[in-house]
Specification:
Layout lengths: L1 E10 L5 E8 L4 E5 L32 E6 L10 E8 L4 E6 L3 E3 L8 E9 L4 E5 L3 E3 L4 E10 L4 E10 L8 E10 L2 E10 L17 E8 L14 H4 L7 E6 L4 E8 L2 H11 L1
Length: about 280
Amino acid sequence: MRASARIVARRQPDGTTRLTTLAGEAPLLVRRVTGRGSGFGPGFAGLSGPDLLSGHGGGDGAPAPAQVCLVGGSAGPLGGDALRCSVDLGPGARLEVHGVSASIALPGPNGRESSLEIQARVGEGGALYWSPQALVAARGARHRTFARVELAADARLVWRDELVLGRDGEEPGSVSTRLRVVRAGRVLLDREVAMGPRHPGSLGPAGSGGHRAVGVMLIVDPAWAGEPSPHADYPGVTAQDDPGVAVAAMRLSGPGVLISAAAADGAALSRVLDAAR
């Protein structure tokens, strides 16, 4: 199966963000969400660090970002599926993308790999919060995700990615994920992770460390260009009472921080990343 989704957002004269294009094909269906009380999580407002929303001159009373949720219109991705998603934010546009439920990568009839390619562009003064639900790699699955994000120099980004290795009680499938972020024409981050039985050593101490769920949250804020990111001192990053949880923050060579976490299951992973905001 080949399917695609496209989201285009533009800032209006009154400061609000309008979704000028919202189109998708199963299993990449996209739906507009209205109101801040949508139940899809805190978005920009939930960040415990600098408010990415107020960074656009908003603060209290600022127009809320546009919100979109990803809806799985069918099972999968299945082996052999080729999926593409495009997100285009014009200058000053603000968008939050959430997920309704986890996606389950499943094996196809011929053992082929499934793939998801994401292309995102955030213009001057724009802000993108990308937080779909976790991807579950079912036994026998082969899946690859490649996300490319292009940021203007003063654009803001929160990118969250969660992976669960296998459903409850089953062996995991194999997944590779790559995130490449380019800011103002320079590479800010190029990170690739491969997990599962097709990637030797990935489930051992040098890989997942025996954890069943791994994830990252990347935060980019141009306000940090001349000062250190505060996230390395966050209680949610530096203190963990659960020995089954691992979390760390890494400052990037630009105005960003990468928070990595591993946990026993998807629910525990989500709690860790929520706390690290």
